[in-house]
Design a protein that fits this description.
The chain has 11 helices and no strands. The protein is mainly α and 221 residues long. The longest helix has 21 residues. Its EC number is 2.4.99.28.
């Protein structure tokens, strides 16, 4: 009995790493654990997969400037940011998120939503492996197609249609920035009906995205 339990645990731990290689194939459209949850609970969801070529570049610029400005330069984890996060936590200070796009992608694909040391311990090596195996372009494509942008709204195409009634390829810079700043809490932050605070954050990200330059070269070069 114990051997079976150990074997089952090992399979659960190893399976995500095998799936990462499976997701190298461009015709595979991964789903997130939240999407699977919605299916199990019979809620359903809206997700329309689109290739990165059909996503307005302003979306990539805005998301990177909002979520992970060093995306093109780290190997899945921004260790400098992580070190500062740990130091602030040990001091009892309020902490920033600290999650990179590979970390969020790994969490969305394989783990669960909640803050815990166990989840973070599983997330870090998965993020490094995901960034190592997948190209930055493919990783960004997957992230933008599984990110949650509202109850039952997953992926940038469904988000663009739901919030702004346009395809992802036609999003404006302001619309892209509103979607980007809503990502940390898409249930409470409605990109289509932003409050004053969300509009202010979007304006900041919009300005940063205009000067993205070298920060996005790993996606479009």
């Amino acid at each position: 009995m114990l051997k079976r339990i150990v074997l089952a645990v090992l399979i659960v731990l190893i399976l995500p790493y095998a799936l990462i290689f499976f997701y190298l194939l461009p015709f595979i459209h991964p789903v997130s654990t939240l999407m699977l949850r919605d299916l199990v609970l019979l809620r359903g969801y809206d997700r329309q997969w689109v290739s990165l070529d059909k996503i307005a570049p302003v979306v990539v610029q805005s998301v990177m400037m909002s979520e992970d400005g060093q995306y093109c330069f780290h190997g899945g984890v921004d260790w400098a940011e992580m070190r500062m996060l740990v130091e602030d936590t040990l001091k009892g200070q309020a902490t920033r998120g600290g999650s990179t796009i590979p970390m969020q992608t790994a969490k969305n694909l394989f783990l669960w939503n909640s803050r815990s040391f166990v989840r973070k311990a599983l997330e870090l090596p998965l993020a490094v492996a995901t960034d190592f195996v997948l190209s930055k372009r493919r990783l960004m494509e997957i992230y933008l197609n599984i990110a949650e942008w509202g109850p039952g709204i997953y992926g940038i195409e469904a988000a663009a249609q739901h919030h702004f009634k346009v395809p992802a390829s036609k999003l404006t810079r302001r619309q892209a920035s509103l979607l980007a700043v809503s990502l940390p809490n898409p249930i409470d932050r409605n990109a289509g009906k932003p409050g004053r605070g969300l509009r202010r954050l979007a304006g900041l990200i919009e300005r940063r995205a205009q000067g993205a330059g070298d920060y996005i070269k790993c996606i479009y070069d």
